[in-house]
Amino acid sequence: MKGLSNFSTEEVQKLFKRFKSLDKDHSGGLDLEKFQAIPNLENNPLVRRVVDTFDDDKNGVVDFTEFIKNLSIFASKSTDSKDEEKTKFAFRMYDVNNDGYISNGDLFKILKIMVGNNLTDIQLQQMVKSSNIGEKLSVEV
Predict the structure, then answer these.
(1) First vs last C-alpha separation in the chain
(2) What is the pLDDT along the chain (141 residues), one digit of tens a residue?
(3) What is the rounded CA–CA span in Å between residue 136 and residue 83?
(4) Threshold 0.70, pTM exceeds
(5) Number of other residues whose CB lies within 10 A of the CB of residue 19
């Protein structure tokens, strides 16, 4: 675990204990339902995207290695390399179809998740169009 994160051995042990407490069926992983049981995430409209982004192997379950690796991005002091990792993580959150680009379609889907039925699809499309991102954005991930 040391090479995957900047957490100390003691911190990894505490996080493993917390991970195990969230993994109530002892499957060895956290799926969407288990993430939604975390206070402050249960009503977060982006929780599915968080799970998808943490789930590096795209099997629908976040194992402890994926959990530690992704938490580590946000848990350490800011450095240029950490800032780059945070940027790449945020990019992956918005790259809904995992093609390495944030397209107008990706932006529309994220906005739809965030606003639900509070805006019509036409209003959302107008927002996306006014964002001036062009066809798609990329970042080396």
Answers:
(1) 22
(2) 556 787 889 999 999 999 999 999 999 999 999 999 998 888 899 999 999 999 999 999 999 999 999 999 888 666 666 788 888 999 999 999 999 999 989 999 999 999 999 999 999 999 888 877 666 778 764
(3) 22
(4) yes
(5) 20
